[in-house]
Known about the structure:
Blueprint: E1 9-13, H1 18-28, E2 32-37, H2 58-61, E3 68-71, H3 77-88, E4 92-95, H4 101-104, H5 109-115, E5 120-125, H6 140-146, H7 170-190, E6 195-199, H8 200-207, H9 209-221, E7 252-256, E8 267-271, H10 277-284, H11 298-301, H12 305-316, H13 321-328, E9 335-337, H14 341-345, H15 348-353, E10 356-361, E11 365-370, H16 393-399, H17 404-412
Parallel strand pairs: 1-2, 1-4, 2-3, 4-5, 5-6
Antiparallel strand pairs: 7-8, 8-9, 10-11
Amino acid sequence: MTKPLEGIKIIDFTHVQAGPACTQLLAWFGADVIKVERPGSGDVTRNQLRDIPDADALYFTMLNSNKKSLTLDTKKPEGKEVLEKLIRESDVLVENFGPGALDRMGFSWERLNELNPKMIVASVKGFSDGHHYDDLKVYENVAQCAGGAASTTGFWDGPPTISAAALGDSNTGMHLAIGILTALLGRDKTGKGQKVAVSMQDSVLNLCRVKLRDQQRLERVGYLEEYPQYPHGEFGDVVPRGGNAGGGGQPGWVLKCKGWETDSNAYIYFTIQGHAWEPICKALGKPEWIDDPAYKTAEARQPHIFEIFKTIEAWLANKTKFEAVDILRKFDIPCAPVLTMKELANDPSLRASGTIVEVPHKKRGSYLTVGSPIKFSDMKPEVTASPLLGEHTDEVLAGLGYSKQEIFNLREVKAV
Ligand code: COA
């Protein structure tokens, strides 16, 4: 099956998570992604949190599938020469080094554009160009704090909280992938490459836009009616943390199910969607609530919403999270069990859809990873193992026209 990005050659000058997540996605869809890594060490995640001695860590294998690995010291003149050749015949270069690193290496945007005016140069940085923090190096949690996620996540009586979801890293990588694909379509029209830049702060903020909505509502009316603080608590002048409240117009909460005393994930998320009130009452065996003025409207319910959640918890007390969802789904009530990583890893539906895949690996045996969350009618992205360090060095160099002797010479000077 021909993949849509087949024929697109990408220099993957990325490391850790934000950049690799982007290029992995493009590799799944058929791009020829060549990961350029420092000889001897490679991407730092190859060694981070190893669970098997001498085998690439899962952190690396789960973010670098479907790629080739070329070791190249791009600070040595011989390495720079190889990189220049690669640049001349590539469509995209993706990087997420610290600010200024590519310039210091001698590959500024101007130089890259001179070497290959059709090439798209895509970068992830912590902050956007010209921002007063644009010299900062940034990791995931730093971005979550800078992008508004931390100040709005957690409980009102606790500190700002980091989400386990990689809002700063993988999310930024996904934004960058959209930027690259857009620039490739643009190039079809203009024949020119361009620079695509995404900052981690901006990408986090993009996902927190409803909180910016709330800031404006708060400033106008002084309260936020869907937050647990309403109507009994106080509002200050910034969006507060709302615990597990729903972010839209539907109140919701994480509710205890049978076994919560010993199982820290025996919970469901329950949403009280306005038009689902009648089915909710029927499911809970509370038909008297349907027309009771104290319960009938969202406005009437809000002052005693936690008392309502308590009643639902009483109903849940003899049901597991799965049993509860199986009943509630029949009433069309939006809800889900709180699933653990163990449950997700073994979920037959996720295995069947290719969202959780088992990948054979030369050194590790096999490992589980998350496959493409994007599904196509004409293509099933296939996940192949991440490359060993330098696994494709000879192949890539031969493709660039280097003879065996020349490759040997590059090895002698430790440029590859
Ligand atoms: N050959 C020779 N040198 C290489 C090389 C290669 N193949 N690949 C990288 N390098 C060099 C770079 O030129 C740079 O050298 P310099 O600082 O002397 O100019 C250095 O290795 C890498 O520096 P840097 O990217 O700053 O690494 P770091 O470990 O100090 O910082 C981050 C890591 C992630 C904090 C930083 O890269 C960063 O802020 N990136 C942008 C934001 C980002 O993507 N963060 C999220 C990561 S998930």
